[in-house]
Structure formats: C-alpha cells, structure tokens
Amino acid sequence: MGVRPRPWDTTPTHPAEPFLATVHRLTPARPGQLHPRDRIWYASYGSNMDAALLRYYLRGGRPPDAARTYPGCRDQRPPLRSEAIEFPGRMYFATESPVWRGGRAFYDSAADGRVWGRAHLITAGQFSDIATQEMYEPPGADLDFDQVLADGRAVLGPGRYQTLVLLGHLDTVPVLTFTAPWRLTEVPWTKPTGRYLLHLARGLLTDAVRDASAVTRYLSRCPGAADAWTLDELAALIAEARTGPRTG
Questions:
Q1: pLDDT value at position 23?
Q2: Sign (positive or negative) of CA dihedral 199, 140, 40, 28
C-alpha cells in the first residue's frame, strides 16, 4: 500500500527546487493600482492549465474524455503566451463536477500555502467567455472588472467559479482567476478523478519547468486528493500524463 501524505505539509517539494527559477512568482497586487485593459493574464490552477483542454473553451467542442460540449469563445484565437506561475494560497478539490464525475479544483486565497499554475495571456473578452462557461452560462457578454481591479476580489454570484480574484500582475498586465466564494474549510473535500488530474499534471509538466516527482508531491498535498490518492497512484498517473494528451 502506498504512503498517504499529510495534506497540510508545506515542506518544499525538492531540497533545491531549481526548476522554480523559471516560474513567475506572483505577489498580491495592490488593489486600485491596475486598470482595465484589453489584455488579461488568466491564471489557471485546475484543468485549464492543460493547453489541449483550454482549446475547447476557446474554440468550442467536446473533449474526448469529458461529458460536456463547450460553446467556445467569441474570439477563438489561442493565447499570446502561457507562463508557469506560483502564487500565495491553497488549491483544493471540492463539490462534484458533472463533466469529470469527481472533485474539481478551487482556490482559497486566504489559506497558507503556494499554488502552482499557468497564466494565459488572452483578451478581456476571452477571459469573460471562459469564466462564463465555467459558470455553466452561455458566453457572449463581457464581465465587469471594475470591482476586482479596485478591491482585489469581486463576488459575481454564490456559486462555483463566480468569484474573481486579482492575484497580481505580470509585465504590468493584471493576473486574474476565478474560484468559489467559500473557504476551503467551509466545504467538504471531494476526490478528483484520474482523468481530471491528468489535465492538471499535463499543464504543470508543460515546458519542463517542473519535474514529474515534484508535480506528484504537489498534487498529493492538495486537500481532496491527499486522503484519496497515494503517492504511488499519483506517480503512475503522472507517468501517463507525460505521454501526452489523449486523441480519442
């Protein structure tokens, strides 16, 4: 039987962590210092770290391993850039996704820890349409960014992915993400499925800025996965992620 890690262990995943030298470490932005503009960095920390899956949010269609067809964005162009990022807070798995049949990733900005993700440089309209699709609503209208840019946080509704968070900035462009309005201690954690975790792993392994063992340990410490997946099970899953995305 594999070893189950402690979910709140924040010990560095590698003694030296040399791969983090190429990761953009975001610090909280001072609200009110950033202004709306056409370009926004979308900070993904869940399955949209995987560029292959993100394309379905942009172009529309149904991923081969998902139980949902996405309408896509009004602007279907790919991101101008995608960068590895790290920012304060905690990623955890909760609720049950009808798409993946298990827990989905959420972000608690007030929790102690560090979150690994990928930032995609897209337009404000594309960010709006991606967020709207995550809210299970039809895309087509731009979100109001005034409150999140002024206050650092904006609750657009009571449900999942209806809370916008300003994480900081990268190259003077705002870095935004979305999550639920609750804290990670206020909701039961839910085991994520292997096919969902594969997308997270593929995103984190992009550009080889982090190695497979580090990604294994990172995911193993996220609440919801920590008590449900052993290190051995995650290592085997991530070995599959390194072979590339499924084609059908």
A1: 87
A2: negative
